[in-house]
Give the backbone structure.
Amino acid sequence: MTSAMEIYQLLPKTNCKECNESTCMAFAVALLSGSRQYTECPPLIKDDKYHNSRIKLEEILKPIRGAEETGLIVHEELCSGCGNCVVACPVNVANDPHGSGRGFGPTNDKVIFRVIDGKVKAANIEECRRFGKNRIMCNACIDPCPTEAIEFV
Amino acid sequence: MSDITTWICTGCALLCEDIQVYAANGRVEKVEHACMMGKSRVTGCKHIAKPMVDHTEVTIDKAISKAAHILKNADNPVLYGWGNSTSQAQIAGIELARVLNAVIDSTSSFCQGITINEILQGQMPSCTLEDVREKADVILYWGADPMSSHPRHLSKYSYFPRGDMRQHGYEEDRKAIAIDVRQSRTARICKDMFYRIPPGSDLEFMKALLDALDGKVPKLSFDLDIKRLLELATLLKQCEFGVIFAGLGLVYSIKEDIQILSGLISKLNELSNFSLIPMVGHFNMRGFNHNLFNETGYIHRVKFTDKGPVSGIEFSIIEQLKGNADAILIIGSDPLASLPGALSKRIEDIPLILIDPCENLTTKAADVTIPCKASGIEEGGTAYRMDGEIIELSPFVQSKGMSDEMIIQRIIKEIN
Ligand code: SF4
């Protein structure tokens, strides 16, 4: 999993504040949370010596940009479409007990996980138990995944 | 607007029946609920096979005549493959073998044949995948890694779903155990119920487990905590509805020695309640065994003679290739990609006829290639799921080609 330190190492590390953050580290944390984009760092964009850093940042930040508000990321390249998460997710089971809950493909649109074109896709993310006021550290989709294709950042 | 079809997936022998295919003008636009393997099955061949004789494109009629000519003139023709064919094509294939006095065999010859034979002979209790979903509380994957070979196995049937008698889900109601030589994807899901054993030691482990079940002190020549083995024995004894999924790892390891596995299952059935389901790979591999059994009383390695069918190890594809096979028809299989080098060489040396929807390694070496429709996609019929249930396939693409069954019927006609 990507860390703020790893991102920081790719930034100019001059604490120039042009991004309006107090330090490069603070900017790295903002990048990790998805609240800012690396293109908002002027020196990084202007100076050609950061060319390789930009490529690397693009690569490691891509999944974070795709992350839902709960921080959920599906690494599609790892997913085999087995559907373990579809059947194990307690929200899927509660919202579709006779479909996903019994091992079938979801039978309605109220589920979080469903497999499309051989890869799992997430929707209705506001229903996730990691979301909202009473959030809990649910692991029910990560735990049964045989390829570590699901991650929360 | 796309048409939505509920499709029976022919990607593996689970034959998942809940796949939604969205297609417009014959083009698949979206597939729901199928795993990656199923998705690639729907998407079809990378390269479609063409009718060829001696590496030159010909009409399909010409390819069929040439195939009939080769088979009719061979002294010892062998018909092999069959796992990706419908039962109807398999039955036609058995008829072709009868007409030719040929040998007919399938991949089951060196994989699940022995377990399926025990089940068909009534020597090994088995059950359906629905039984597993509704009732199973102890699931043992032995030398099997369904997470890689049958991706929806655990989610659809064997571990994760809520069943009638397993309402609380897998965390509370089911125990999954893996016995394997490596920590497979399935073993990872079984966590601390994974028993790693050295390659080839399945029989030794089985004997030790039998001792533990008998209340004797088990011995093992390799490093595995005996306490864990005793724990396993206790769990198996206490279960309400247990099932063993026998994978290729187990079958290869016990070779032809099925007695000890049958012994273990009977012992378990004295103490609790256990069934075995073979982890069959191709979508109708098990069908070949059932259909041949219905026609001849044997499940594979059959030779037709003037006095009727006979069966024996000498009629296995491997022995035939080592020995006197002088022409081979391969259907829905790519043995040049899977058989050991020396045997593949032999296939290339004798006249080779291939019936397949797609180009593969074997088509490149074939003397005659006859393209057929993709079973279950362009052509219907029935197939046997891995647990022996008969499933009606649901083709959704209209195409002009010929099914493998039609091709075989035509070959029979030309021979007669
Ligand atoms: S598990 Fe097998 S039958 Fe089910 S969708 Fe995947 S390939 Fe198809």
Notes: The pocket of iron/sulfur cluster is lined by residues B 9, 11-12, 14-16, 34-35, 37-38, 150-152 (CB under 6 Å). Residues 46-111+283-415 of chain B form a domain with the Rossmann fold fold (CATH 3.40.50.740). Residues 60-73 of chain B form the longest helix (14 residues).
